[in-house]
Design a protein that fits this description.
The protein has 155 residues and is mainly beta. Helix content is 9%, strand content 43%.
């Protein structure tokens, strides 16, 4: 019998949609903190907030993914991710989840391509798990967007 391969993930709510991220790229899930605005920021960049004595960019994931998120949930969380592409330049960045993420231990074989092809370069693909469609982000593209914008904090 072959060994089964499992991945530790977080199921991250965005209104009525769900993102699936490997736990290894999530640095922390923290209480929501309002960001400090940035000079001439694009609509997908909400600002920065302080976390562990660092300024962390907070992105508007709904703008980046071109989705509507309707949620007035008071359980919003900042999802802080490790920077993967150029961690020395941008060690962390974050986005807002509309509720508390749920940890999952997923068997790789249980993820099924849902055949819904998103028309957005910020998704890699989507899968079906437990009768839910889950979106996987194109973190490389999102990080490239962040690196292309010089962050100047308004004081």
């Amino acid at each position: 019998m072959p060994n089964k391969s499992f991945v530790r993930c977080l199921l991250i709510p965005l209104g009525d949609k769900q993102l699936l991220l490997p736990s290894a790229i999530v640095a922390e899930v923290s209480s929501y903190q309002a960001p400090t605005p940035i000079d001439k920021q694009p609509n997908w960049l909400l600002g920065v907030f302080e976390w562990r004595n660092q300024q962390v960019p907070l992105i508007a994931i709904e703008e980046i993914l071109a989705i509507n998120i309707n949620s007035d949930n008071k359980k919003q969380r900042n999802i802080i991710l490790y920077g993967l592409e150029a961690s020395n330049l941008m060690p962390f960045y974050a986005f807002i989840a509309t509720d508390i993420p749920r940890p999952l231990l997923i068997e790789e074989d249980s993820l099924i391509d849902s055949n819904i092809k998103p028309n957005n370069k910020n998704y890699i693909f989507d899968v079906t798990y437990d009768n839910q469609t889950l979106w996987l982000l194109n973190l490389t593209n999102i990080e490239n967007m962040l690196r292309s914008f010089p962050i100047k904090i308004i004081t």
